[in-house]
Design a protein that fits this description.
Chain lengths: ~375, ~400
């Protein structure tokens, strides 16, 4: 007896993924239209974490805004601090001491590693491998201990401030950072590769999944490792060097499509793993060259009052370009501060990736994880 | 405790006494114990025979149930410890020495928790589902031996029974997911049904290949067919059975819904699959069933491929088997065999945990691909190969090599 396909009545199902869901990396909601396990269409809803950062910034003076920038991308707070500090410095024309520049680079790169470790760990978790997550946390803990010694904070540092940094770095912390580098690269990253990156199941789950062509990425404003995973070599540290990044030697890893197609989840994931090696390389050079001297511009330590005008400045955070557009009316408070969060732009491409009809429910999780979003930054 | 589940006419105790002489080696028989004890005191059993049978049934049922509970307590603790030590953590440390009583504390917590039934749930089905899932696991323990002669019922079609009633669990799972009235639970349910129905086929083929070698469906007979040096274990009997044992271990992971085949629960995708809406004791029953199933598939693996309670060294296995051994030696030999069996089974439970905490999860289509396009064809080829091998060599163990050098199989 044969059953004709038309006799079987099937229904599409609307499924709410989030705002409380273990794999949306925060309060993020996607409404997906599914046919069985296949995702036909998805629609993202954001805004559950909106905290009026930009408006709050208008009511605080320039130094008081720094702690609010921490809370945007809380996994890479140093980069936000740095982006904001450099924006104000650019407008106020403040010269940052040499030593402070090196401290900033060390702190930001360490934070980038911590952030990528988090991305690595949670990505494993999303795909069902729990152990890499705890390995990542074990190593992230070393970085957090360094930060704790450096500024007393483990997550929201508010360490990089206008004019320099808040506290000087001690020899002990420099030795700690050196010890971390020696411990981490290459032994530990190789271990990650063996455990997860080249695992057969992991490759089959990520290769050819969520392919992001480079033109699509550019049209959506995707930046950071997610863009580089599509094969475009764009890294602000290299292309438009800020701070003192032009003094260091490092490579910009890009996706190669070696496991599947160019721009798939595996490529985006692998870019992060390879970037961690490059960050260690930068930290090693910075630790070698760090000069003695002041850690903050003395005048800026007490407060800043940039002249009337406007400025846009962007840096390379762990998730992409962190940009700040600042308008000053000459007072002690910003007249207007607009932040460009990379996660916000990166997440906008999600619907385009998952609505092509070749995505399954399990792939949704893989794709969201590979974009490595932080909801605190999406909503601000 | 040879339970007389399949033969309960009056005079069952005589039957048990009679069976004790031929089919089990060093086994325990509750009924004959009671009779012998009463005989020694010069008393008669005061009730009808069926009372004894009923009491025995209840005792055995309680023992198996108690064993499952105790094992689940231990296995949950072991799982947490294994995962913790693999992940540079300590795991539970506070309750009892090295957290041994942690599961007990969790169990107490679960029993006193509020029993929540969602308003939109299908109430009767929702209540019935955990019972059916747990029963589906429990009755699979009936033909499963825990040691020589230590079996609830040594049925002739034991292996067939294990395979057949395994499907009952699927019904319970479908009921749970459907009755929850939750889309995520429904996803978990459909995945479970797909997965368990598919993976029963490679498992069944592995069963058939073993039955061909052992010449019996009875789990006791299968174990007894593997007596001797460890190369008499079916895993070494021929290369096809070696492959089939690996296929069985992989498929049994899927059968237990364990990683990398834990799609039905997939906590990062479906929150926790079909039992998302369950809380308190009902949830605990699903949990209990999962760990009981882990032990079950491991014990079946030990019975089918890894020599059951035989240690693989005849000198050790011989303890307590000689006709003139003292009662003490017989008891020691029996306890050793039961211990060996339990150790092997727990080792395979550990392997399941080891795999779970190492590998990522596969996707639904990949899961089906592995089953239907990889495991099934290979297992079919192995079944034919193994049968032909048996036909050609007449059942030579260890690829038939020891027989060439004069060692018995």
């Amino acid at each position: 007896m044969t059953v004709a396909v038309k006799d079987i009545r099937t229904e599409e199902m609307l499924l709410n993924m989030g705002p409380q869901h273990p794999s949306t990396h925060g309060v993020f909601r996607v409404v997906i239209r599914t046919d069985g396990e296949m995702v036909l269409e998805s629609e993202s809803h954001i805004g559950y974490l909106h905290r009026c950062f930009e408006k709050v910034a208008e009511n605080n003076n320039y130094l008081q805004v720094v702690p609010y920038t921490d809370r945007m991308d809380y996994l890479c707070a140093m980069a936000n601090n740095l982006g904001y500090a450099e924006t104000v410095e650019k407008l106020a024309k403040i010269q940052v001491p040499e030593r402070a520049q090196y401290i900033r680079v060390i702190a930001t790169e360490l934070n980038r590693i911590a952030s990528h470790l988090m991305a690595f760990g949670t990505y494993g978790l999303d795909l069902g491998a729990v152990t890499p997550f705890l390995y990542a946390f074990r190593d992230r803990e070393m970085i957090l201990k360094i930060f704790e010694k450096l500024c007393g904070q483990r997550l929201n540092y508010s360490y990089i401030r206008v004019g320099g940094v808040t506290f000087d770095i001690t020899d002990e912390i420099l030795a700690d950072a050196q010890r971390f580098c020696d411990y981490f690269d290459p032994v530990i990253i190789d271990e990650y590769d063996r455990l997860l990156s080249y695992n057969g199941i992991f490759i089959s789950r990520t290769a050819n999944v969520g392919v992001l062509p480079v033109d699509l990425a550019i049209s959506y404003g995707v930046t950071g490792p997610s863009l580089r995973g599509s094969g475009l070599k764009r890294d602000l540290r290299k292309d438009e060097p800020y701070s003192i990044y032009n003094r260091f030697e490092f490579d910009v890893p890009v996706g190669t499509g070696e496991m599947g197609q160019l721009g798939d989840c595996w490529d985006r994931y692998m870019v992060r793993i390879r970037e961690m090696r490059q960050s260690v390389r930068i930290i090693r050079q910075a630790l070698k060259d760090i000069p003695p001297g002041d850690f903050c511009e003395k005048k800026a330590f007490r407060g800043v009052k940039p002249p009337k005008g406007e400025v846009y400045h962007k840096i390379e955070g762990a998730r992409g370009e962190v940009g700040f557009y600042l308008v000053s009316d000459g007072s002690v408070k910003p007249y207007r501060l607009k932040a460009r969060g990379p996660s916000f732009c990166n997440i906008s491409v999600l619907d385009a990736l998952t609505s092509r009809g070749d995505c399954m429910v399990a792939d949704m999780v893989a794709i969201i994880g590979s974009l490595d979003i932080v909801m605190g930054e999406v909503d601000r | 405790m040879t339970l007389l589940a399949q033969a309960v006419p009056p005079g069952a105790a005589d039957l048990a006494r009679a069976r004790g002489t031929h089919d089990v080696q060093g086994g325990l028989h509750l009924e004959s114990w009671i009779y012998q004890g009463l005989d020694a005191l010069g008393l008669e059993f005061p009730f009808e025979e069926w009372v004894l049978v009923a009491v025995t049934l209840l005792v055995v049922c309680g023992l198996v149930f108690g064993f499952i509970n105790l094992f689940a307590l231990f296995a949950v603790w072991l799982e947490r410890k294994v995962s913790a030590h693999m992940q540079c953590r300590l795991g539970p440390m506070e309750v009892g020495p090295h957290g041994l009583l942690q599961t007990l504390a969790d169990g107490i917590k679960l029993t006193v928790k509020e029993d929540i039934i969602p308003r939109v749930a299908d109430k009767p089905l929702f209540i019935l589902a955990p019972v059916i899932v747990f029963t589906g696991i429990l009755i699979r323990f009936v033909p499963l031996p825990f040691g020589p002669g230590l079996v609830a019922s040594d049925m002739d079609l034991g292996l067939f029974f294990v395979a057949a009633v395994g499907s009952v669990e699927v019904i319970g799972v479908i009921m749970a997911g459907w009755a929850s009235n939750n889309k995520w639970s429904l996803f978990g349910t459909i995945r479970t049904a797909t997965q368990m129905v598919s993976y029963e086929i490679p498992i069944g083929i592995a069963f058939v290949a073993v039955i061909v070698c052992a010449g019996s469906f009875s789990l006791m007979e299968i174990v007894n067919a593997q007596q001797g040096w460890f190369w008499s274990w079916f895993v070494y009997r021929n290369p096809f059975l070696t492959i089939l044992s690996i296929i069985y271990l992989i498929a049994s992971l899927a059968e237990c819904k364990r990683a990398p085949f834990d799609l039905p629960e997939a906590e990062s995708e479906l929150v926790s699959g079909f039992h998302t809406e369950y809380a308190g004791m009902r949830f605990a029953f699903f949990f209990l069933a999962e760990y009981a199933a882990m032990y079950l598939v491991s014990a079946v693996a030990v019975v089918l491929f890894f020599g059951g309670w035989w240690s693989g060294i005849p000198a050790i296995d011989g303890i307590g088997l000689a006709p003139d051994d003292s009662a003490l030696t017989v008891t020691v030999g029996f306890l050793m065999k039961a211990g060996i069996f339990m150790t092997k089974a727990i080792f395979f439970v550990f392997v399941q945990m080891w795999v779970r905490w190492t590998l990522p999860r596969v996707r639904l289509d990949q899961m089906m691909h592995i089953c239907w396009k990889v495991l099934l064809p290979i297992s079919l080829v192995c079944l034919v190969g193994s049968t032909l091998w048996e036909l050609m060599t007449g059942g030579g163990a260890f690829f038939g090599i020891p027989t060439l050098f004069g060692f018995g199989g």
